[in-house]
Batch of 4 targets.
Target 1
Amino acid sequence: MSLELLLPVDEENLKWQSILPKQILGKNILIHTKNSGLPDLKGLKIVIVGLSETRNSFFESDNYKVDNFRKVFYELYPGNWSLKIADLGNLPNGAKIEDTYFAIKEIGYHLKQMNIIPIFIGGSHDLIFPLYQVYQEFEQLVNMVSVDRSFDFSQEDELISGRSYMSKIIMDKPNVLNNYTNLGYQSYYCAVEEKDLMDKLYFDGIRLGQLLDKIKISEPVLRDADIVGFDMKCLSWDAIADPLKGQPNGIDSRSICALSRYAGISDRVSFFGIYEISPTPMMNQLLAQIVWYFIEGVYYRFNEYPISVSNGFLKYSVTLSNQNLTFYRSEKSQRWWMELTNDSYLDNKTKTTTLLACTKEDYDSAILDIIPQRWYNAIKRLN
């Protein structure tokens, strides 16, 4: 089992804890050390796994060390959480990058079987690919969300790297990708051909300006996600306090933490990865807070997935000029969903319906005879 490959956390990171209050996270989570060994997974809800695979990373030469994040994260105070959390240590690089993919897939598969949510930290964004392969093993359709400045497609079908892992996912068989959504893309980092491909496949994308104008529009997208990956190149330079590692436009520190909390509070998210991390002291602090907010979100999950609208949901029917739409609002969380119907059925026995997370604004638009774009894309993918 690949979990046995995980290297313990360097105990040098723990010595200083003796002078800190007993309430800090470092004293309230299980930690894989040389002396204690790998923690028992039974009863765990969230685990941290460090990745050092940088052969496809934008920051390969910087050699980011996950232990630098740990020093900051362990000092934070937990919320009023009743979650059992563990730090499982670091996965060493395989002889070939494919060996690293295989180990991540094995770890992801085992943790998903146990309903444990792993937070993968470090390495390049293509390390999300083996998490997709986990869903292939389960023969389960998957929704992927990337917070990224680019779409990560390539014109070379067989090329897989931090810039092009999505091409590999689309072409890999069996294809279990239901939807891919990019949050925060910047058009000048995206080829026209990539945008055309997104449109052709009816994938969703929210531009950086739209996202920053109203961060809440990301909530229904993340609510429907199974795998979420953050490419930290999406940050603006002021978010990491180093112009040499950032860019003039990008996601700020508050917004990235809000996105992390939305990902955590999603009842569906099973894998969370943070990749392409630049080695700066400010980044370590921000990374620790991103992980903190994800855990906070997991604690406050509403447990509304899978959804049963027969109890605790209000139904709203809207008649448009050429379409009838049905919306549901949860009385518990006040969140909204749209109903999708497969129109390609031959009879009522094969007719299928599913629900798509949305906002109240989508309902308001439907009243004005405007079909929500996410609903349109989802129907095209479904039919």
Target 2
Amino acid sequence: MTRIVHIAAPMPRHGAHSGYARLSEAMSARVIAPPRLANRLLDAMPARLPRLFLDPPNSGWYWNNSFLAAELAALATKAVKSCIIHALYGENSFRWLGFGPQKRPGALVATLHQPQSVFFTAMPQPKLLERADALIALAPCQMDFLEKLCPKTRIFFVPHGVDTHFFRPLENVASKEPFTALVVGSWLRDEALLNSTIQKCSGMDTPIRFLILAEDSFKKGLEQNAHVKVLGRVSDSGLLDLYRSANCLLLPLKDAVASNALLEGMACGLPIAATDVGGVSAYTNADCALLAPAGNARRLADILEFLAQNPQACSEMGRQARLQALSHSWSAIAQKMRSVYSAIIQ
């Protein structure tokens, strides 16, 4: 049996139950830890030296020596043993893997998380992906530009997953008043659209409260609205409580591929009010989500008003959202990924 090795370095902002790194646990994969000696050596170098051949100056993308150390350790493992090396965050961890020898046992896999609008900033040397035996797209919206980087036969769509055991709705919930729209996350969120949507909702007959959990730069100025409550960093249990306390999840987006917040909100039984961009429609359906055209604050506000004024419809959409999320449980996603691994090593 071919050994499965993941470079899984989780994102610092993700809690223990969130993020794509949860795939490793679901697959019982070995996770490469950055060797301490390699980390020390890299840290001793001038800060920019390891990046000279990988990123343009001031690319600003999330990257550190730990990723490089983990890649080197993975290559060392692969040099002595046939295995599948899977960079779970390909934009961060498929740099030096792409410089490895082409004739090798096993396979190299990379999951890519970003939409075309930011991908080439995230990965300024995309030709490295030509060395991958499989690229994992998290939404169909990535296919067109990925097919320009790699043969179509090596690109596979495997959705993002969610911990449906942890993120789940409360049973026998009492009516939640006032109607609360929860906003979670900052990446590729449309701040101007959110502000405009809040303003349009302020004059409605049905009061709507907004809870916003995001980075400080995204929340700036929102505290001045009486209908808005901004929140600081919360624990895993605090995040779960927020999902469970809300009536719907509001996602004003500029672009998207997969979204932890989207899947977690659905898993907690929240109907979705979101911008119809990127991969959102690939993870939702008309039974659990109402989508607005990009930048259309009037439509988003109307969606929130409909949900607030129709509690039965809102409840049924929440039930359907939970059912949709169950199809994205990590066990289901792990099975799909095993099928990809089997296909590329045959």
Target 3
Amino acid sequence: MSEHSFNPSDLLSLSPRAINGFRSRLREVSLAWAGREITAAGKFFYLSFKDGKPTVDEFIDYIYSQIIPFCIPAREIRESHQKFNETNDTSIWLKLSDKARNLFIKARNERVISGEPGELILYIILEAALFAPQLASKMYLKTSEMMPVHGADSIHMTYAPSSSVLTLYWGESKLYQQLSSALYEIIKSILSFISPKEGRTPKERNIDIIKDHISLPAISEDFKKELLEYFDPYSERSNLLREVHACFAGFDYSVYSDLRSVNKDEIERYFQGKYFSRIKDACSMFESKIKDSGLNHLEFHFFLIPFPSVEELRNKFLRRLGVASD
């Protein structure tokens, strides 16, 4: 891109405080995984421990605090920030918070997406772990009465200045008690995403969304014009577009129940050892499902987080939103 092009760190929706919060709430297991017969990489996390217990409540508070940048387009957040600087009126942020919360509730009530924490968790992982900003707010668009939107749970991007490659992340997130069920549903969603319906694929419709509704924290008109060239098949830049399916699976992990019998000082080390083995099994399962589904021509980034109870996570998040769980 030209000299006026962006610094990727300038495009992050999450604040430095939010990124630091990510590091406090989640620990990463150091495991360099790459698929043997597929193009894939992975990052594997678990909830940080406090006094020998996983910090579920703190994690819910953290992800809830990020609903504004997840739900609200970056342009509207910028405008609100400018108004606050001019007026010092804190009600501006309260109104924005209420709007984001109401969008989440509306999504749940109308079932346009699940309205559950999985999509929000994936959004945070992509921004805080891969430094890939959200390219378009799917939550905002899906809850618009005039904008029926299907396809990926999220759309994010990174840019490599040295090669001019733009990496587009199509997000899929699933929270299930059984890991195998979460992986099955991820593969099912991707197959649906790339399969034609009425002559066009949901992926093609999502590209139209990108063209019409780019939402980045810092974007000039010149950069927006250059960015759109990556999605123009007649542009040389389209040859530098890389697509990755970012897949997040959250699942119930029975090892949490075993921790009651482990010495408190040894709990996290014990957990890490068990989880390390589970990750390797999960990666093998994920790779097998991709090959069996004929998706091994695609590229993937796999994210994993085990929870004491996915149902508990879901219910506590909904209560944090102020709505009753089903």
Target 4
Amino acid sequence: MTFEFGGNAAHIDGSPLKASVLAATLAVFGAAPAALEQAFGTAELNQAGTNQPDPAIVADMLSTEIAVRLIEDELTRRGLKAAETTKALAATQVDAFFGDALDGQPAYKQVLADRYAVYVTLDQALQGPPPTDAEVQAEFDRDPARFDLACARHILVVTADEAKGIVTELGTGADFATLAKARSIDTGSGADGGDLGCAPHEVYVPEFDAAVWNGPVGVVQGPVQSQFGYHVLVVTDRRSRSFAEARDDIVNALAPEPFAALQDWLMQQWGERTIKVDPRYGTWDREGGRVIPLGVTVEGVTMGSGPAPTTK
């Protein structure tokens, strides 16, 4: 299957989206296979045995370009621009996701950061105003105990016998932090002497959460089995919080999931806007909001090589 990237790849309400954008993006990922794997879950850009890109990757890229155009158009319509703080956050997120995989493509890295910033900007605009002080207070008053904190440390091992041995060692005076650093397979907390910090109810897996909230403070517990292995733990503190102490957590809990509002808005746009994909690149799935690659249907059934190219 041969691709040609002249003309337009799609139209949105009659406005063209140039195919050359796809060619430029393919060139970036062709030069950065590690970034390709991060973004698309594969290190192979091309169809097997050819120098032509995988139709599924082309379709994914075009789906993204359509979504970006819709979002940018809406920000323009609303007269909104990404704030500098949002841009800085976006750059950090791109760096965290790709690591050094895009270090050789600084211009495209900036494109991704700019796009993430517009996603965040429109998502925040669609969410509406934050909860009022009265709403936050009402959420706290509904059940203040939900915001209590328990502080604990643990040592995680593979077998019950290992855990029992550690309980015995602690009972004869061994230092908890030293054992955690040397023996815990939870290397994150192990490096901190097993310290898990403080957390509210239902943060941990059920078996561990029950031990943290029901066991005595300051007493070694274990073995406690969970899906991760066998825990030896000590609850170091358990305390209630005032409204002021819990307020930030309540505000975060009341906030919608990141990008949920944006996704709902996009789904509405897919149904309302006229989106036409050039048959060189696939077909538009209005319900799924994506380009279906050449050679497949929405159900994934093979249909051959697809229609003849056009450049209109």
